[in-house]
Amino acid sequence: MADIVNIERPNKALLAGLRERIRRLEGRGGGGDGGLPFGLVDIDAALPGGGLARGALHALAGERPAVSGFAAALAARLAGKEGRVLWCRAGGDLHGPGVAAFGLPPERLVVARARRPADLLWAMEEGLKSRALAAVLGEAESLPPVTARRLQLAAETGGTPALLLLARDQPLPAVTRWRVTAEPSLSALPGLGPPRWRLELLRCRGGGTGTWILEVSHGTAGGFALVAGLSDRPADPAVGSPAARHRLAG
Q1: Which DSSP letter does residue 243 get?
Q2: Least confident segment among 12-26, 41-55, 180-194
Q3: 16-20, 97-101, 181-185 — which is least confidently predicted?
Q4: What is the rounded CA–CA span in Å between residue 148 and residue 174?
Q5: pLDDT value at position 209?
Q6: Does pLDDT of 204 surpass 90?
Q7: 149 by DSSP, 3-state: which?
Q8: How far apart are CA 96 and CA 72, in angstroms?
Q9: For residues 190-226, b (16+ Cβ closer than 10 Å) or e, as one string?
């Protein structure tokens, strides 16, 4: 079961409690200070160094079920076999089996629930600077650029990737900005088949852009398989799919 900590306001007691939970974890996964490859040549070629920068802020925009599902799969890849992940959200629990389906077991997940946006962002900053986590995820409707710069600085300080889940794309000072849209599986039966997304790299500092359709590969935790590259075709943000397959929030 995931560790859960309720965040109300940044004070010394809450900070000590969060740090204690992080100290109980067994260190960060993925190893190294370089980028983490997706394992897909087309996508990795668009990223500087051939992978997702670790000590950096990455913004993921789109409808919550699709973004949450893709972020969980990406966090599982960042965590590897032993790393731990901090997921900061405004309220409610994450659905443990839903998270595990994307390769991230609940026992390697710490969920921080905040009542105010300021508290959520504070928890993200502390987690990023702790150097004890494989990744820090945070859900927000929107974010001021100055706050995004603080998260980027915290990610650089701890060498930890920050995945910011947004309802819509913003021109934030993130190293990468992505748009995630759910795609229907090719399975003839609803709800079956691996989750699939249309992934758009909207901006990449020092890299390129592109659009791809990819899905979860069940061979390894955090594994992806490329279905199609759509670099010459505009993505249709109105494309939908069965949201229940990607629903993580309980």
Answers
A1: G
A2: 12-26
A3: 16-20
A4: 7
A5: 95
A6: yes
A7: helix
A8: 11
A9: eeeebbbbbbbbbbbeebeebbbbbbbbeeebbbbeb
Instruction: Please tell me the distance from the alpha carbon of residue 145 to that of residue 166, in angstroms, as a whole number.
Output: 13
DSSP letters for 99-139: HHTTT--GGGEEEEEESSHHHHHHHHHHHHHTS--SEEEEE
Between the CA atoms of 108, 63, 92 and 154, what dihedral angle is there, to the nearest 10 degrees? 50
81-95, 109-123, 216-230 — which one is most confidently predicted on average?
109-123
Neighbours of 108 (CB within 10 A): 24
Question: Which pLDDT score, from 0 to 100, does residue 190 have?
Answer: 57
Q: How far is CA 85 from CA 27, 65, 244, in A?
A: 10, 19, 23
- Cβ neighbours of residue 78 closer than 8 Å, sequence gap 6 or more: 29, 30, 36, 52, 54, 85, 134, 135, 161, 222
Query: What gap in Å lies between CA 44 and CA 36, rounded to an integer?
Result: 9
**Which CA distances in Å does 25 have to 132, 133, 154, 181?**
7, 8, 20, 33
Place of tokens 């997706």: 38
State how far the Cα of 22 lies from the Cα of 133, in Å rounded to an integer: 8
Separation of alpha carbons 75 and 161, rounded Å: 9
Q: How far apart are CA 180 and CA 153, in angstroms?
A: 25
- Whether pTM exceeds 0.70: yes
The candidate with the shortest Cα–Cα distance to 94, out of 116, 85, 223, 151, is 85
Q: Give me the pLDDT at residue 29, please.
A: 36
